[in-house]
């Protein structure tokens, strides 16, 4: 009943960049979000200087602030860049990854064993590679001090799974009475006395109330929350892989604080999205079942949330995002079976392709269910807009650029043998790649506060790095570097903020991705576990385009915009025109010609 077509994202096609573009109608040169984990001139490279998911990183206001100032009440749910809150009249519920409030991510716990799996994960066991630990490795030990426990026919084991300051004790036992070590069940307790769940692999517990600890500045805050447990994998010998999912909503990550209890009471504890970034599910075959169960719980919650938000908060505007579709399409299990551009597509059986497509199609139907709920609570004067920040394309190979720079003698590092994490010698390193599209260069070393270098030595080294990147080729002859831009040209050519990028900005060939990974063997190319991605790809690649649909009063009906995409920056001024509101001066987009 409205206008529909494609929309083209903004380089480097990463979530925070595109959200900032959609929500301001401007490009990174104006809104300032060049990436997620941004480094900045005058700050050390070993830590993130400007978190791109924080509202404070933006240099111009998002649409909700403009609407709020015009006396419109806005409810924002799970939208990157919405926290810390910028509005006064409306509601903000968990602005994803904004670094604001008590945000409790799901955690995996696994037997440490010989450390192989821990070393394999390396930095990828941490949120966005530098945040909290998302998978912990803890060896079980003989169980002691338990009361009211089930009978075990092998000597039971236990482990203390401490997440967010609060332990959940697990009792790993054998219920089979078959004269063998055959551990098959796990009991869960908060005090070793009352068991709140007794599970076999693949089962989930109900929600259990729990008090978690949030470290804020130099104090620890107790937070009322809920936890839900599942056993992903359990070996006969007592090997375990367990996941604890924590309610994603509480008063410390909501504005106003009481809105969290109002939502939880009606919609239940929040399951915002499946898995984490980087993904923690995908290392074992059993992980897929857990992934799909968690995805379903996410869709269930978001579907309930639509009417709950309307009933509880009575907003004029709702801006609502769900991340689970992206998680599915970038996970190990789908893109390689549904997109012929994947190098694994021809290797897959028809059964694998059919199963994957059915599951992806079901995901789209679950999205459609959410749209149905939106329609139910919408009046005849409501505008409904459906959009996305980026598409997804198959990821076939990683180019390990830091290994390349180490081979050239420009980067020096060691590997922690217990964790697999690299330890960089910044003083004796001259070149490094840091997500998502930046290469930092200084012939005098990269330690201390980063400053742009200059002079003949700098220019010579930068030219050598450019040459090395352009000549890098995979075994099949593909050269993944398709465009390399000097920092001083990036604003003119890529519309990026020049103060928040590396000395070189690099774009990759579709199907290839840049990796920060470092290894002793200095392997230049590797096969990723993920099967889809979007970062640092030319937005003109059709797989990167997104849907754009708008319906409502005065909008042309059955109006297809054609196969050529609009630009993301044009969505904001189009919405403002529909609402008969002034378009701010910083907006670079133009309203679409879709009005009757």
Could you walk me through the main structural features you see in this protein, from its secondary elements to its overall organization?
The strands form 9 sheets. Strands 1, 18, 30, 31 and 32 form a 5-stranded mixed sheet that branches. This protein has a 5-stranded mixed sheet with strand order 7-6-15-14-13, with helices on one face. Strands 8-9-10-11-12 form a 5-stranded antiparallel sheet, with no helix packed on it. The longest helix is centred in the middle third of the chain and has 27 residues. The radius of gyration is 25 Å and the shape is globular. Helix 6 packs parallel to helix 9. It contains 13 helices and 32 strands. With 596 residues, the chain is α+β, with helices and mostly antiparallel strands. 23% of the residues lie in helices and 24% in strands.
Number of helices: 13
Shape: globular
Please identify the structural class as seen in this structure: alpha+beta
First-residue to last-residue Cα separation: 13 Å
Most strands sheet: 5 strands, mixed
Oligomerization status of the protein chains? single chain
Beta content comes to 15-25%
Helix content: 10-25%
Mean pLDDT over all positions: 96
Q: Spans with pLDDT under 50 lasting ≥5 residues? A: none
Number of strands: 32
Supply Rg: 25 Å
């Amino acid at each position: 009943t409205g206008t529909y077509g494609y929309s083209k994202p903004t380089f480097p096609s990463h979530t925070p960049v595109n959200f900032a573009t959609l929500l301001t109608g401007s490009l990174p040169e104006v809104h300032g979000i060049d990436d997620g984990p941004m480094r900045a001139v005058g700050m050390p490279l070993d830590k993130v200087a400007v978190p791109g998911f924080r509202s404070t990183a933006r240099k111009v206001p998002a649409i909700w602030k403009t609407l709020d100032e015009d006396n419109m009440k806005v409810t924002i749910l799970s939208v990157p860049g919405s926290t810390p809150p910028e509005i006064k009249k409306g509601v903000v519920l968990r602005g994803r990854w904004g670094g604001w409030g008590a945000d409790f991510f799901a955690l995996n716990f696994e037997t440490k064993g010989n450390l192989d799996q821990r070393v394999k994960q390396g930095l990828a066991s941490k949120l966005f590679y530098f945040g909290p630990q998302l998978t912990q490795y803890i060896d079980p030990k003989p169980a002691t001090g338990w009361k009211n426990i089930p009978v075990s026919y092998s000597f039971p084991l236990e482990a203390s799974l401490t997440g967010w300051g609060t332990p959940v004790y697990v009792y790993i036992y054998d219920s089979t009475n078959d004269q063998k070590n055959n551990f098959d069940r796990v009991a869960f307790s908060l005090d070793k006395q009352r068991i709140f769940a007794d599970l076999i692999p693949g089962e989930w517990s109900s929600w259990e109330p729990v008090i978690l600890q949030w470290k804020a500045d130099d104090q620890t805050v107790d937070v009322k929350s809920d936890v839900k447990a599942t056993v992903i994998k359990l070996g006969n010998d007592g090997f375990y892989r367990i996941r604890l999912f924590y309610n994603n909503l509480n008063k410390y990550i909501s504005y106003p604080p009481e809105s969290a209890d109002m939502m939880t009471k009606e919609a239940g504890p929040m399951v915002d999205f499946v898995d984490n970034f980087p993904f923690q599910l995908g290392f074992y075959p059993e992980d897929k079942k857990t992934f799909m169960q968690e995805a379903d719980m996410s869709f269930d919650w978001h579907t309930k949330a639509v009417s709950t938000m309307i009933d509880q908060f009575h907003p004029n505007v709702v801006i609502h995002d769900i991340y689970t579709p992206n998680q599915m399409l970038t996970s190990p299990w789908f893109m390689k079976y549904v997109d012929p551009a994947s190098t694994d597509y021809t290797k897959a059986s028809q059964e694998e392709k059919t199963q994957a497509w059915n599951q992806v199609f079901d995901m789209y139907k679950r999205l459609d269910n959410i749209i149905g709920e939106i329609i139910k609570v919408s009046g005849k004067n409501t505008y409904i807009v459906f959009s996305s920040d980026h598409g997804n394309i198959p990821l076939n190979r990683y180019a390990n650029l830091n290994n390349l720079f180490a081979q050239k003698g420009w980067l020096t590092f060691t590997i922690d043998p217990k964790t697999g994490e690299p330890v960089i010698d910044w003083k004796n390193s001259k070149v490094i790649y840091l997500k998502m599209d930046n290469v930092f260069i200084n012939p005098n070393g990269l330690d201390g506060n980063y400053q742009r270098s200059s002079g003949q030595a700098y220019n010579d080294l930068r030219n050598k790095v450019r040459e090395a990147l352009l000549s890098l080729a995979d075994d099949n002859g593909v050269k993944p570097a398709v465009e390399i831009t000097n920092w001083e040209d990036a604003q003119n050519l890529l519309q990026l903020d020049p103060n928040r990028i590396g000395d070189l900005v690099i774009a990759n060939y579709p199907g290839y991705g840049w990796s920060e990974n470092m290894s002793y063997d200095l392997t230049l190319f590797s096969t990723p576990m993920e099967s889809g991605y979007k970062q640092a790809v030319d937005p003109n690649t059709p797989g990167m385009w997104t849907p754009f649909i708008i319906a409502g009063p005065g909008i042309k009906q059955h109006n297809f915009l054609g196969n050529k995409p609009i630009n993301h920056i044009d969505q904001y001024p189009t919405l403002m025109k529909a609402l008969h509101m002034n378009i701010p001066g910083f907006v670079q987009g133009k309203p679409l010609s879709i009005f009757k």
